[in-house]
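Holo prediction. Input below; ligand is 3AM.
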Amino acid sequence: MRLFLALMPPPVLRRRLGELADRAHARLGGRRVPDDSLHLTLAFLGEVPQAQGEALARWLETREIPAGEWRLDAWGAFRRPGIVWVGSRAPDRALAELQAALWNELEQQGIAGRPSRFIPHVTLLRRVPRLERAKPSPPDLVWPYRRVALLRSFTDRDRARYQILARSPLA
Ligand code: 3AM
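Structure of the complex:
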């Protein structure tokens, strides 16, 4: 199973992110990420055997995280895969610490693949054919979070789909 750890937005924020995705999609095209799939990836684990996935789910269910608030105030893009995202202008210390702490524990459980850089972002569009230089007015959103989710990623009719397998206890 292909797994990742992510924050899932609360419903009000999910709608706001969906509106940003609609606006960006009208301008740039590409594939708009459906509201249900909007997330912030903290760790991409890759392909994991079923038994290890189940052990990771049990670990996460007892792993409380510190509650926090992430401010989203910037648009961004990853050019090569044609991804348009929203995130923050300045690095977010709490998220960086959370990502590092989770990776320490994943590595203790035999998971490899810690990235050399962590750019917190919410992907809104994929496969954008041509990215513009001009950026629209920056977003100004706050994402309050209290738990992390373990998700399985799979492909269904050429679309990435996610299924929540486990969640950490509410902080
Ligand atoms: O939507 P975002 O950008 O947060 O890009 C994939 C997505 O991130 C990323 O994991 C999230 C859930 O699929 N992802 C997929 N394959 C990856 C890989 N090989 C990857 N991240 C790093 N390495």
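The pocket of 3AM is lined by residues 4, 41, 44, 123, 153 (CB under 6 Å). That is the main takeaway for now.
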